[in-house]
Each structure stands twice: as structure tokens, then as C-alpha cells.
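name: query_chain
kind: protein
chains: 1
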Amino acid sequence: MIGDYLPGTQLMNSQPLSGHILIVDDNRLKLTHVLQAQGHQTTEAENGRQALDLLQNSRFDLMLLDIVMPEMDGFQVLEQLQQHNQTLDVPVIVISAQDELDSAVRCIEMGAEDYLTKPFNLVLLNARLGAVLEKKRLRDQEHAYLHQLQIERQRLEEYTDELQARNEELDAFAHTVAHDLKNPLSAILGYVELLQKFYSDALDDRGKKNLDRIHQSGMKMNLIIHELLLLSGIRRQQVEIRPLDMSTILDETRRRLSYLIEENNAEITYPEQWHEAAGYAPWVEEVWANYISNAIKYGGRPPKLELGSMPQSDDFVCFWVRDNGAGIAQQDKSRLFTPFERLNPAKVEGHGLGLSVVQRIVKKLGGSVGVESEIGRGSIFYFTLPRSA
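structure:
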């Protein structure tokens, strides 16, 4: 049957289309014989009322409908068809002994696909049947495709909702774990600093070195906890976008990273003036802190950093950190901003979580992130923000 084709199936051009045809005509037996000989399946109705009953309970690809019939004429049948959704997709070819233009126009206006007058030519009848059945086949394919598309869209929406729920659960879990670790870790760092301040003289060089390592490891853990708390809050937190005082933000960033800058003898060059942009200052400070700390850790020895900004033609401002490190291979650039990605544990271990936080922050603020780098020529990590109004 025509209605059984699915999207993508094709009929051989050499094979005529066949279908299940409902014949509603006083000369139905002759039509039945002719159509069955052409390979069609047929069902006969004596009048319009019986035809409507059959349409409610069976599936047809086409109906041949006479105009002049007892009880209910063809016009009344066409009118009833328009009132029932389940029968609207059954095409109708009207056959009538009335060769009147007004009747043909009326039938077409009431939804009939075609109008043939008796006696009709068999070749013409087959041609009209083939055209209507082909149109019905294409319409069925379209309906099946749209139905499948609706199903897939619903599945996608359900999957999206499920992912959203899981992300919210993951954010809540990360926030809870990080928050629960923050207090005991702060106590550990406090005790370590007390030992360094008041009991350092009682330790030998090895003890002092081990204490410094404990303190450094604790600071790294504290940074990870901070980033987890930030990462869990970015997705759900709504912030107010305002013009940024980039000089003040960088002053606070330098204060946060002072131990790292001093420890590595880092040289940092700042521009005399920053181009104005809009964002959320605490988040932008986190972006700078990640970029600068990475540039110090993986830059040259001593690390030399250059910070700057440049307006773009699309109402955005680009900010960057240039380092003098070993550079990053072309195939590794796209993986840098992937959460928990590790390119080379010995060299770029610190890029993973921090840069994924950077990407999420900047995207939430309406900008983008990226890196330009060549092996042996250092790297430029950049981010863009909208210009302030």
C-alpha cells in the first residue's frame, strides 16, 4: 500500500503505483474489475453513507466517488470528509456523468483532487490515478518524516532535560564537597604557617623543606577547591554586567599571585592604559589569575609575561597574556580548554581545570577564549569581552 512507505524508499519507474482504492459508484463492479487488473486492491461501497463508515474503520489510498447517489450524494460526502481529520488525507477523484464545469469546480473547491466524466478513457483514468497516488505517496512520506522528526525532537528535549538535571546535581555535589573540604584545609594551612613562623628554627633543612612542600601542596589544593566552587556556581549564578576597571582587577590579581611571582622571579609588563570592556569583575579576575599563573608556571626561566588589550571590529575587546615558554603543539591547542584534560602531565598539568573555568566564565559573559602558540616561540592566551557602552 502507498501509505506503508517510509521516508527514503523509492519505487522503480517501470512499476506502476498501486494502492487500496475505495470505489463509490453505481457501476462499481466494472471499475473493480478494471482496477484489480491494474494491480490495485479495491473495496466497494453502495452509497456515500456506507463509504464514510468504511473510511472510519479502514485505510485507503484513494477514493473514486460518484456525484449522483441515493441517500447521500457526492457533494455531501465531500463535505463530511472535510469535517473528519482522519479522512482528510484520503484523496478523492470524482467521477460523474455530469460534464458540467460548475460541478467540477465545486468538487475541486470541496477538496477533490480531480474530476473525470463518464464514459472515461481507460488510459486517462490510469494516468489520473497514478498522479494522485504518487502525490499521496509523497505526502505520506512527508508526514512520516515529520512524525519521526517530532519523535526525535522530543527525545532530544528529554535528553537535554536529563543532562540539565545531572549537571545541576553535579554542580551541587561539587559545591558540597569543595565547601566541606575548604574549612579543614584552611585549618591545616594555618597550622603549617604557625609551624613555619614559630618552630622553623627547631627543624633541620630537610624538615623545613618538607614543611614548605606541605604548604605548597595545601595551596594547590586550596586553589582547586576555589575553582570547584567557582565552576559549580557559574552555570546557575546570574550576575550584573558592568564596565570594568581593569587596572584595579589586575592589582588584586597581582596581590593574589604575589607568592608565585616572587618565587619564580617573574617579569610582567602591563599596558599604560586598558581598553574599556564590560563584564563581572570577580569572574574576570579569575580569568586573569588562571592565565597569569599558567604563564608563570610554564613560561621561560625566568618567566617574562606581557599583558595587553586591543579593540576588535565586532564591538569586542581582546585581552591577552604572552609568555616566553616552550610553546604548545598545534594538535594540542583544541584540548587546552577541556575540563580535566592533561596534555603532558610533566609539563602542562595545571592547564586542565583552570582553563575550563576560564572558558565557562568568558562564555557566560558573552565572549570567547583561545590560544596562539608555536613550539619554541611561546604562547598567547587571550579572551574577549564586549565593549562597555
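note: Residues 204 and 210 are 10 Å apart (CA to CA).
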